[in-house]
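User: I'll paste a sequence; please echo it back and then give the predicted structure.

Assistant: Echoing your sequence first, then the prediction.
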Amino acid sequence: MTEKPDSDPELEGMENPEGFTGPMLHMGIAEQGKLHAVDGDHKLALQYYRRAMHMAVSAEDSEFFFRHYLECVMESLEHLGSFEDVLIYCEKALELYAKKPPEDPVSVRDLAHVHQRKAVALIKSGDVEAAAEPLREAVRLVREADQTIPLAEALLRWVDAGYRIDPARVLAEQKRHGYFSVRRDTVDASRAVKLPPEMLAVGTF
């Protein structure tokens, strides 16, 4: 495992009071992104998430980090209403899983959540009919693993019943079922690492 991201000259001037290195560094950068997300600044959050993702991939750290940061990216894109971008990310994630199928319950659940997120993006963008297939796949995956996925199950019932699904009602269900992983109660400000201002200029990502 390399430590290349730690020596990146672009990172000089960042606020890193704990002196984090290695995975703790990109985790801290992602944590700062989460702080911006819970404050409603999802565009700024995306810059932090993408930097953390880039560092994790460059250092060849555990795939867990990449998957988690990708989830954070998709959440912020969804909050911004960028459903087309969410669908693009979902398709990329599904392609990766097609090449390397999930081998454990955690990965199976992650794959199911990608299908669920794809369905939510389709519903919120107005294509309710197309959401049925990914919802069925999400439910199938978790049931075969003896798990549950309440939001997908509820949305599938609505779709099958032909209900008119209002995005506000979907959002309420998302919050009720803990769909969003980035919440004020899940963020630890003490671990956050701020990037230097010049890295946050328009066009950095």
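The mean pLDDT is 89. Residues 81-163 form one domain.
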